[in-house]
Amino acid sequence: MKTKWNRPELLAASAFMATGFGALWIARDYPVGTVTRMGPGFVPIAISVLLILSAAVVAMQSRSLPASATRPRLKPFVFIIGGILAWALLVDRVGFVPSTVILVLACASVEIGSTWRASLLLAGGLCAAGYAIFIRGLGIPLSPFGG
Amino acid sequence: MDLLSGLALGVEMAITWEGLLFCLIGVSIGMFIGVLPGIGPLAAVAMTLPITYHLQPMSALIMLAGIFYGAQYGGSTASILLNLPGTSTTAVTALDGYPMAKQGRAGVALFITTITSFFGGCVAIILLMGFAPALGKMALSFSSAEYFSIMLLGLVAAATMAIGSPMKGIVSVIAGLLLAMVGMDTTSGTVRYSFGILELQDGLNLVAMAMGLFGVAEILKNAGQPDRPTDKLQKVRLRELLPTRDDLRQTWKPAIRGAGIGSFIGMLPGAGPTLAAFLAYAMEKRVARDPSRFGKGAIEGISAPEAANNASTQAAFIPTLALGIPGDASMAVLLGAMMIHGITPRPEFFTVHTDLFWGLVVSFWIGNLMLLVLNIPLIGVWVRILTIPQRLLFPAVIFFICVGVYSVNNNPFDVLTVIVFGVIGYLMNMLNYPTAPLLMGFILGPMIEQHFRRALLFSRGDLWTFVDRPISAAFLACSAGLVLLLVLPSLRRTASRLKRAF
């Protein structure tokens, strides 16, 4: 009898296994110590091995699973992750207001029924709220414009 | 300290302007988040964590706790009116709540869920007042071996009792433990898995991780999808809230059973309110004289799970406060928040932080009362929250996640961490790997390693120390039992398939 591998499931389990192997590889530099006096390497190695083993069991089980994963939708993913990335990289350089406007416009653009006008208004409102709560209120060192 | 003087101290701590204010803010945020489908209490707590750094520990805890139980009240609103659970813990409520709404009894359903939530909460708080100090006293005699075994049980329970594949839960919890290894090892001072990045030497940021896994990942899943069909929303008038005498008669017994199940599940480390609600529903279906009524608007089908999920949320504070072992992922985040404030929940909690414990307990009473008031007369306001479109809500949530995380260390690096865990969480959700055990593993990781190493140091490397001590052995046996119970069937399936293959 031939069973078809469920590819996304297998991929996910392999990713966990690869993480385990990677962690094991890095941990080779940490002293293991003895059971009485464990070094910093003992527990990470044990956990890595457990991760590899448990992920291997899931990989074996995945053969019987029906295709379950939904296809990822690329546009929301790219725009939202891109927006956050832009905010993180820009906020120290061009300031709080411009990076927030970029973030809000990027996130709003993937939603059904969003308009430029409404999104810009939202961005403005959030900038004001963020300025009042975080910059004035909690005193985080960000300037509204410029680095 | 006896109950009465404890309560008196708690009243003194919690009934201050500040305490009342933050209790109200907490339960309102919880209600708000609970009503909105797609954003859970974990994301809400992660978003408000940065703000609590600037508060006194007492106010911070009152507010964060309020978010958790507030969300249990709010979650049922969307379940009943839109057939969409506001939080995962109220998914069961939709089974009979939505049919009730279709029969024009939405108001009654909302009233009943509020009352039963309140009842469940009260039962669990009474248990908390009775059990937690006693448990804490007992735990004073615990050594590292016991702590290791209890935490192991917590992790195993979190992994295997998650809804879905238990094996994937185990993978998730172990991955969380591995993530906890990032940063400096407290015993030797060695920096592990930092990849030469300065920011990673202190370990991964809990807030950033939680916001990625529960905030960004959820939004990635729902973004760009059509809005909730709010045109189906009914107006709920105050008059329609009142249940008939028959409704009440059918409610009280299931509510008592639900509160019992919820309190028990909540006290177990690792098992959370979602499981409690499911079990309570299953139980009602079993004891009912006519099980076919379920799914068609049976009132027991909402009163038992609603009492159970709120009871479980409150009872989860028992292991969290007495032993420092979170009852579920939400408690794990709360535990993280307490540690940030320099409070380590452990047996000495009651002797060192007696005031905090009783203050928190009194705030639970106040908060539950506030929720009762917030829910019943103001139900129309909460229903209107459901009409906020995603195009306004989601960008705002993402924005608050970004600034909130940034403000923890004033460092954009943490925002990058959010992105990484947002993507990981999104992929894990897509492939049905539960993300809550990952967080449990991450938070318990450093503690479990420390106790493991210390226990073996004291026993001079003798692994039997975990079995020689009766309490530790009992917890280990429970963990082993759980694993066997859930892994055996799948192992047997694999074995028979292998047999067929050859």
Task: Describe this structure as you would to a colleague.
The complex is a heterodimer of chains A (147) and B (502). By secondary structure, chain A is mainly α. Chain A contains five helices and no strands. Chain A has helices spanning 7-27, 42-61, 74-90, 96-109, 116-137. The radius of gyration of chain A is 24 Å and the shape is flat. Chain B is 73% helix and 1% strand. Chain B has helices at residues 3-14, 17-35, 41-52, 57-82, 91-102, 106-139, 144-160, 166-180, 206-222, 245-267, 273-287, 300-315, 317-323, 329-340, 349-352, 354-375, 379-385, 390-409, 412-430, 436-458, 465-468, 470-501, and strands at 183-184, 191-192. Chain B has a two-stranded antiparallel sheet with strand order 1-2. In chain B, strand 1 (183-184) and strand 2 form a beta hairpin. Classes of the chains: A mainly alpha (147), B mainly alpha (502).
Biggest sheet features of chain B: 2 strands, antiparallel
Evaluate the radius of gyration of chain B: 22 Å
Order of helices and strands of chain A: HHHHH
Order of helices and strands of chain B: HHHHHHHHEEHHHHHHHHHHHHHH
* Strand segment tally of chain A: 0
Whole-number tally of structural domains of chain B? 1
Greatest contact between two chains: A-B, 76 and 71 residues
* Beta-strand residue percentage of chain B: under 5%
Query: Quick one: overall form of chain A?
Result: flat
Number of domains of chain A: 2
Oligomer: heterodimer
Q: How confident overall, as mean pLDDT of chain B?
A: 83
Tally of DSSP helical segments of chain A = 5
Globally, the shape of chain B reads globular
SS field, number of helical segments of chain B: 22
Instruction: Tell me, rounded to a whole number, the average pLDDT of chain A.
Output: 86
Helical content of chain B stands at over 70%
Low-confidence stretches of chain A: none
- Poorly predicted segments of chain B: none
The Rg value of chain A, from CA coordinates, equals 24 Å
Q: Sheet bearing the most strands of chain A, described?
A: none
